[in-house]
Amino acid sequence: MDIVRWEGFWYIPKFLEPAMTFRSSFAARNDDVLLASSIKTGTTWIKALAYSCIHLHDDEDALAGNNPHFLVPTVEIVLYNAKPFEFDIYDASAPRLIHTHIPYSHLPDSIKSSSSSTKIVYIAPNPKDILISMWHFFNSMLKPIPIDKAVDSFCSGFCNCSSFFDHVAEYWIESRKQPEKILFMKYEELKNSTKVEISKMAAIGE
Q: Which tens digit of pLDDT belongs to each residue from 2-16?
């Protein structure tokens, strides 16, 4: 699979244009919520949980029959999705819940600005689990590669939206600077103490 480098991180080429458009054109609202993650890190689960937190009181069956990926659009794929999303991510007429794999340094200034109250929820699992998940995922679609080559590529940062470690570190550092704005969640803690962690996620979006 071809990947291209932009300002220190690798992207699949077709995802680079939407990422650049998002960075230059997105006008954040103070009541927007951005979910962020590296690839294969529990994205579907965090989308479902966040959507349920927001819509629990107005629609208890909000997720029934709906894939979380259509309810919570991922910034990089909005130009290529065959099925229309629930809303236009660039329509700022109402609060938005969206997702991205983009590193923190590549986010729009309207989100990162100290004057912005846009909330960010980031999820990060154990890197060993991510490596194995990515290896099986890409091997199912592309020409399989040996696990030792996958390990070398992952550890060197030579994979999509990586390095994984830099990706995690950027959001972690910013979450320590702005805990009221950025919630850094660990997948294992979410799995083991689900109610506690969901309460934190619901609180940051209030």
A: 888 899 898 888 889
**99 classed as catalytic:** no
How far is 142 from 162, CA to CA, in rounded Å? Answer: 19
Hey, what are 140's tokens?
């199912």
Domain range list for the chain: 15-125+166-204
Q: Which of 69, 99, 101, 136 is catalytic?
A: 101
CATH of domain 15-125+166-204: 3.40.50.300
Query: Quick one: 134 exposed, middle or buried, by C-beta within 10 A (0-12, 13-18, 19+)?
Result: buried
User: What pTM value is reported for the model?
Assistant: 0.88
Measured CA to CA, the distance from residue 121 to residue 106 in angstroms comes to 16
Do 132 and 139 meet the contact criterion of CB atoms below 8 Å apart?
A: no
In this structure, the chain runs to a length of 206
85-124, pLDDT tens digit by residue?
778 899 999 999 999 999 999 999 999 998 899 999 999 9
Helix, strand, coil percent content, the chain, rounded in steps of 5: 45, 15, 40
